[in-house]
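Final report, Chapter 2: Outcomes

The project's central promise was a pipeline that accepts a single protein chain and returns its three-dimensional structure in a standardized token representation, suitable for archiving and comparison. That pipeline is now operational. To close this chapter, we reproduce one record exactly as it appears in the project archive, with the input sequence first and the structure output second.
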Amino acid sequence: MSRKERLEKLGNQPTKFTNVYIKNFGKDMDEERLRELAEKFGNVLSLKVVTGESGSSMGFGFVSYETPEQAQQVCHCHMAIE
């Protein structure tokens, strides 16, 4: 089924997701620090900071939350990570 067909089938139903793509953070970000930031929005089931061959962050990662509502909170927040 194509994306267009799926969207037509769903109609106006809100999308339910629990995984969030996080981007634009520095090479010094690690999973411990990302967890500290992510837990402000809800119960984190898992997370991953994507790293290069050198082991440093590639500037993006993923966080999986317990509920779609928790994940949605993150998507509405534009926080600067310092």
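Archive annotation: The beta strands are 19-23, 44-51, 57-65.
This record, like all others produced under the grant, will remain available to the consortium after the project formally closes.
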